[in-house]
Design goal:
This protein is of the alpha/beta class. The chain is 31% helix and 22% strand. It is globular, with a radius of gyration of 17 Å. The relative contact order is 0.14.
Length: 216
């Protein structure tokens, strides 16, 4: 669902320009393969595709200061609230981008990313929109080229049809699925960090589906 645009955010988000790429001009400064230089250190790079208001990403970054994190979100009005969390927590290992994931190969080099996270993405329920789903095989091939040899994709959703579709896509792409759960919160998994959507849906009794996908 697209939120009503808040004009004041166009200016307010510029206050976070030290870690947020929110303008076309700032995006143009990105050099593929040089994220280590942006973070001023060499560390594993984990990327969340569709970071929303940033609860998951910021908590991951807080728990894992040894990892560099990037959150990508198409809606600036949503990403602004993720930026607030990053600033409040004083996180130095997070960068945020207002960016269209369809062009993800424009901002990362082959083999540059260690892990992708996809949490509660738009399910695009109509069959004619299947190619827009972030787990469609054409997206998976992009992720494959951008991931390191040991790279992984971690996927969570409350939408069972999307999850089943995704499992079919993983198989079609010859990927290995492990730690599969159709009811994450009753699976005994430790250290699960919930997104804003996850908190909402699980509170309504919805089961959360999760898996880890290996591209090796």
């Amino acid at each position: 669902m697209r939120l009503r645009k808040k004009p004041w955010i166009d200016k307010a988000i510029l206050e976070f320009s030290d870690f947020v790429y929110a303008t076309p001009e700032s995006i143009e400064t990105i050099v593929k393969g040089e994220w280590d230089k942006v973070f001023t250190r060499k560390a594993p790079l984990h990327v969340e595709l569709g970071t929303g208001k940033g609860r998951f990403l910021t908590q991951m970054a807080l728990r894992h200061p040894e990892i560099n994190f990037i959150g990508i979100e198409a809606q600036q009005d949503v990403l602004y609230f993720a930026a607030l969390k990053v600033r409040e927590l004083g996180l130095k290992n997070v960068k945020l981008l207002v960016f269209d994931i369809n062009h993800i190969e424009d901002i990362f080099a082959d083999g540059e990313v260690d892990r992708f996270f996809i949490n509660f993405c738009d399910p695009w329920p109509k069959a004619r929109h299947a190619k827009r789903r972030l787990t469609y095989v054409s997206f998976l091939e992009k992720y494959r080229s951008l991931l390191t040899g040991e790279g992984q994709l971690f996927f969570k959703t409350d939408n069972r049809p999307l999850f089943d579709f995704s499992l079919e896509q993983f198989e079609a792409a010859n990927l290995t699925v492990k730690n599969l759960s159709f009811d994450l919160h009753n699976s005994g998994m430790e250290d699960n960090i919930m997104t804003e959507y996850e908190t909402k849906f699980s509170g309504l009794g919805e089961k959360i589906n999760r898996c880890e996908v290996s591209f090796k």
